């Protein structure tokens, strides 16, 4: 393959995408042609290749390998709001390609939920929006916990298009008429 040339056009939007919710809108659906997606607080990394030079783009990245094979192209990817894309021209036998690398800051929350907040009731402990004192997770999920004694019941109504998983830590429960011992049970409406 010595002497062969490969071109790669790259239009980059990296984000944590949620599954479509009941309203039918994941993050990408809210931004046709990615217009404005870089300003969404849920997006963890966004690059706009409409800069005036590769050098200016490279300054925004933690590591750039083989910058000499990178160039800006006027090729506009379909459904893109941008006017340029990144071109990586690889000549076989001359290099091992190129990369742009950016580390993302790790993040986590830790919180104690008093037993009385979950005794006999469902307590939201994690959600995308962190509402009701729950910790924030960057996924389209709601995580509830409950501590129940024999005979106690809780009800959770699922929104259209949503599914649930029940994890029993101790004992057993009946969900929709089915007995569940210590394992995960899928609940599909």
What features would you describe in this structure?
3% of the residues lie in helices and 28% in strands. It is built from 1 helix and 14 strands, in the order βββαβββββββββββ. The protein has one helix at 54-58, and strands at 5-10, 13-14, 45-46, 63-65, 70-73, 85-91, 99-101, 123-127, 135-136, 142-145, 164-167, 173-175, 178-180, 184-187. Strands 1-6-5 form a 3-stranded antiparallel sheet, with no helix packed on it. Strand 12 and strand 13 (178-180) form a beta hairpin. The radius of gyration is 24 Å and the shape is elongated. Residues 1-24 have low confidence and may be disordered.
Mean pLDDT: 77
Helix fraction bin? under 10%
Tally of individual domains: 2
Low-confidence spans: 1-24
**Strand-and-helix sequence, N→C?**
EEEHEEEEEEEEEEE
Strand order, largest beta sheet: 1-6-5
Structural class: mainly beta
Strand content: 25-35%
- What Rg, in angstroms, do the CA atoms define? 24 Å
According to DSSP, the number of beta strands is: 14
**DSSP summary: helix tally:** 1
Global shape: elongated
Largest sheet: 3 strands, antiparallel
Through-space gap between termini: 55 Å
